Amino acid sequence: MGPLSGGGTALSDSSFRDELLTWRVDAQDAGVRLDIFLAARLPDFSRTFLRQQIVSHNVMVDGKRTKVAYRLHEGQQITLNPPVEPPERPVPEEIPLEIIYEDEFLAAVNKPAGMVVHPAKGHWSGTLTSALAFHFNSLSSVGGSARPGIVHRLDRDTSGIIVIAKNNIAHQKLALQFEQRTVEKEYWSIVLGTPDRDEDRFSAPIGPHPHQREKMAVRRDLSTAKEAVTFYKVAERFDRFSLVHAFPKTGRTHQIRIHLAQIGHPVLCDRLYGGRAQLLRGELTGCAEQKEIVLDRQALHARRIAFEHPMSGEPMTLEAPLAEDFSKTIEILHAGRHS
User: Fold this and answer.
1) pLDDT for 242
2) 2 falls in which pLDDT band (50, 70, 90)?
3) Which long-range contacts (CB under 8 A, 24 or more apart) does 138-144 make?
4) Residue 87 vs residue 153, higher pLDDT
5) Confidence class of residue 146 from pLDDT cuts 50, 70 and 90?
6) Which residue of the set 155, 157, 270, 325 is catalytic?
7) What pLDDT is stored for residue 232 in this prediction?
8) Domains in the chain with CATH codes
9) Which of 102, 127, 143, 175 could be stapled to 107 by a disulfide with Cβ–Cβ 3.0 to 4.6 Å?
């Protein structure tokens, strides 16, 4: 990763507003799309917001304007001019949402990969909060004006189901279920390699990474690290990959991604914990000539969530259809098995 101007790797709101940011493209990022390159380096900002900066010509490659989908070359220099600061609260935006369930108290949405749930303070464009503000007349305010309706969250590049509260009573009752760990969550992930065990339980405390501020890590040496437990099952094994169902019993930041990487089977295309940003068709099929990019985000999908309805107490189980890139990857793996 090329350095930021000023030599830092973290990014604060003030630096984003006040100074020109500069990166140099190294060998591992050659061929990566410009918007994806920026998204990996500015994790607190939505991909939609960063695309808007490219379209508005706030981003230059070797001093020239370019397109969102431009693929980078080693040695190129990328600069980002400070954009105009967005409003201080989510602004309703007409962003399509796949609503899985809705009643007068709550809703469930199938969040696409690349969408930030609630970004860094002061930057709201293209986020789930902006989409919710457009689609729903009433949302809870328990989480503050910055996070209307948001009871829990998903990482930006994780797709899948997220539950939204429409009023404060529903929010508080849902939040209590998360706090008491009575909510059941199931994630699907495509990982590198094939685990030896069909199923297992992994427990390791998670805390801030000692050197990289954007990462978390297993920290058995840190007294403030928090307990993290993940149960997983291997659903399918392929030659060099596996489909894994993960059931987190706690809700730590990046928990599933960290735990799977810790056992030697990182989530595919997980830049932070797997060391790469994209996957080519040829890597799945074994045919080196196939250069189509199949995945360019972490292969992690929040598939199912089960909880009690906050008002009626009735048990609810909701599922989110797989994202297209996730389904396509599995289809290619299946086809390779039978070819």
Assistant:
1) 97
2) very low
3) 138/166, 138/167, 139/164, 139/165, 139/166, 140/165, 140/166, 140/167, 140/168, 140/170, 140/171, 141/168, 142/168, 142/171, 142/172, 142/175, 143/171
4) 153
5) confident
6) 155
7) 98
8) 13-80 (3.10.290.10), 99-177 (3.30.2350.10), 184-338 (3.30.2350.10)
9) 102
